[in-house]
């Protein structure tokens, strides 16, 4: 049986570690500010945004929320973006995805001022990450890196397989693992929906990061004994629960835990880290924009 990686505990350590930095910035008259922009009435997006606002409140980051009617012309969103780019009290912000079909998503990503782009999706920030000069590491892969570090998982020289090649998880995750830097130096393979014989790849891996969005697709027989398994997947499946659904990962936990040495549960693994690293990026943004030096955990 593998040991569970406790994402709630590591996320709580990250938040505690940010507290000094937030206090230092606030004492200097620059309380960090994070804005969320929502142009959607999708309940899941509404929940994500309200969780981010609650996280801010808990650590003393000033939360700002902007809501745009999903039926409104795209220019209303771009005006709000211009406004946030200009505000001194907002050091970081994000536009909750997905945006409606009539809004050009790529233009949204390009319009966010790179120094306030705490999601790390702007092409300038993607380029800097790939070049080994990251400004903001995207929150989920950064959180995975912190989890591996917290559990002393050696990435240097390890064979790592990332399942998924999205812009927000798979690609930046692979980029971080392959960098010549602490938490990197892994021999990294990226698998995706067109990969031939996925199991043959994952069986060779010391570290598997599953980010495909396919419920329980990684089973114990696809893993090598003693491997480290990080399950990024959050899949909502119908279930006989109060809410009518449950959240399950991309890894079949019961069979995987028999093979792995360390494994992240869902929930309570990567999810809390994604939220903590958004706060981390916001504090970094505030420090860089105000010139107030702080130590980041
Ligand atoms: P996505 O749909 O954008 O990308 C999925 C990727 O998986 C694609 O690149 C695709 O090629 C690959 N894929 C799909 N089916 C596959 C298969 N059968 N075999 C191999 N590869 C396959 O999804 P995403 O935004 O990267 O998110 C992935 C999962 O992670 C989702 O469940 C999402 O909800 C979850 N997620 C969790 C967090 C978190 O904080 N824990 C954050 C972001 C996303």
From TrEMBL:
Presence of the UniProt keyword Magnesium in the record: no
Pathway(s) where this gene product acts: One-carbon metabolism; tetrahydrofolate interconversion
The UniProt record lists the keyword Methyltransferase: no
Span of domain Tetrahydrofolate dehydrogenase/cyclohydrolase NAD(P)-binding: 138-289
Any one Gene Ontology molecular-function term assigned to this protein's record: methenyltetrahydrofolate cyclohydrolase activity
Catalytic activity: (6R)-5,10-methylene-5,6,7,8-tetrahydrofolate + NADP(+) = (6R)-5,10-methenyltetrahydrofolate + NADPH; (6R)-5,10-methenyltetrahydrofolate + H2O = (6R)-10-formyltetrahydrofolate + H(+)
SUPFAM superfamilies: Aminoacid dehydrogenase-like, N-terminal domain, NAD(P)-binding Rossmann-fold domains
Classification via InterPro entries: Aminoacid_DH-like_N_sf, NAD(P)-bd_dom_sf, THF_DH/CycHdrlase, THF_DH/CycHdrlase_cat_dom, THF_DH/CycHdrlase_NAD-bd_dom
Domain Tetrahydrofolate dehydrogenase/cyclohydrolase catalytic: 5-119
Family: Belongs to the tetrahydrofolate dehydrogenase/cyclohydrolase family.
Functional summary from the UniProt entry: Catalyzes the oxidation of 5,10-methylenetetrahydrofolate to 5,10-methenyltetrahydrofolate and then the hydrolysis of 5,10-methenyltetrahydrofolate to 10-formyltetrahydrofolate.
PANTHER family membership: C-1-TETRAHYDROFOLATE SYNTHASE, CYTOPLASMIC, C-1-TETRAHYDROFOLATE SYNTHASE, CYTOPLASMIC-RELATED
The protein's name in its UniProt record: Bifunctional protein FolD
């Amino acid at each position: 049986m593998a040991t569970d990686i406790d994402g709630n505990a590591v996320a709580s350590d990250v938040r505690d570690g940010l507290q000094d930095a937030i206090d230092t910035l606030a004492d200097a008259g620059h309380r960090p500010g994070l804005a969320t922009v929502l142009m959607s009435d999708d309940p899941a997006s509404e929940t994500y945004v309200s969780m981010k606002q609650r996280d801010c409140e808990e650590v003393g980051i000033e939360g700002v929320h902007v809501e745009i009617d999903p039926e409104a012309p795209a220019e209303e969103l771009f005006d709000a973006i211009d406004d946030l780019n200009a505000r001194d009290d907002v050091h970081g912000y994000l536009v909750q995805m997905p945006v409606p079909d009539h809004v050009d998503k790529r233009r949204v990503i390009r319009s966010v001022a790179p120094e306030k782009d705490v999601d790390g999706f702007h092409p300038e920030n993607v380029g800097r990450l790939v070049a080994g000069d990251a400004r903001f590491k995207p929150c989920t892969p950064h959180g995975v890196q912190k989890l591996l570090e917290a559990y002393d998982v050696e990435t240097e020289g390890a064979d790592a397989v990332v399942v998924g090649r999205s812009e927000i998880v798979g690609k930046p995750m692979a980029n971080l693992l392959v960098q010549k830097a602490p938490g990197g130096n892994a021999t990294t393979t990226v698998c995706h929906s067109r990969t031939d014989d996925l199991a043959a790849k994952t069986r060779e891996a010391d570290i598997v990061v599953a980010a495909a969005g396919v419920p329980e697709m990684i089973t114990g027989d696809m893993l090598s004994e003693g491997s480290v398994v990080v399950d990024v997947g959050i899949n909502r499946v119908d279930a006989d629960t109060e809410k009518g659904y449950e959240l399950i990962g991309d890894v079949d936990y019961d069979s995987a835990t028999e093979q792995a040495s360390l494994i992240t549960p869902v929930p309570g693994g990567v999810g809390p880290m994604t939220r903590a690293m958004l706060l981390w990026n916001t504090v970094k943004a505030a420090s860089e924009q105000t010139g107030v030096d702080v130590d980041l955990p």
